[in-house]
């Protein structure tokens, strides 16, 4: 069956109310699907295959913890206040973060340990995380959520981020989409105020043919018109890039670019890029997992002079956007 793909100009002419603005995380499968995709992508040709398998174990642990975790929902008065001011419903940057996130972290570490033998370096890291007090863990969480790169421990951050993801994905999965306001700031999740990691053009049902940017924290997906920058909202200077040698004839390069299930969408207006996947070309595409597994494309985009619009919370470089 040929899937219907709706072009940007056509989308903009449609009644916006007919397009699902949000796609909330599917609580029963969100992390399990991510784990399965990570294992699928961790083949022998992937330079970080071992790391992807480790992150698959972490995602499996997230799914198990999420099955029984319920964070306190915000009060109705808080929701209405955020609505009136066009603010995220459950903002990540808050002074009232549920302290249970630290318990989630330790449960995730238990899950990773139970998944198999740990390397000496990972054993040391897990021990170091368990030894941190509440204040130190909260400081690391604050740095990650605020993208204060100089304060982030790259080795520990994926596990801290994973615990925070469980908490906010739990909240997002229980929020009524009608309560989620429209924000004035482009490229920001209206549920938690974090930024998306990658986007996906979905197939099937009400989402068929539409592009959604997936939040890196709560996994909420926000509809964004294609050929529009998911970082600055510009429609100018948008281009698409794929992995390849660049040595093929022009027609072969064009065919490869057209059929690629994953591309980097760059914007000359803000100088950033964010990856986009096409579910019609890779049905199991999972924005977070596919972004993590395509490090080679990040290297190529960096060489081309573009910077990531946002980091993947499971792969923090030693030196990053802190120099921006």
From TrEMBL:
CDD domains: FdhE
GO cellular component, one term: cytosol
GO biological process: protein maturation
Gene giving rise to this polypeptide: fdhE
Domain FdhE N-terminal: 19-182
Protein family (similarity comment): Belongs to the FdhE family.
UniProt-annotated location(s): Cytoplasm
UniProt domain FdhE central: residue ranges: 188-226
Location of the FdhE C-terminal domain: 228-315
Keywords carried by this UniProt record: Cytoplasm
Transmembrane segments: none
Entry keyword annotation includes Transcription: no
Pfam families to which the protein is assigned, alphabetical: FdhE_C, FdhE_central, FdhE_N
Organism name: Caballeronia novacaledonica
A molecular-function term among this protein's GO annotations: ferric iron binding
Superkingdom of origin organism: Bacteria
Protein name as catalogued: Protein FdhE homolog
Summary of the function given for this chain in its UniProt record: Necessary for formate dehydrogenase activity.
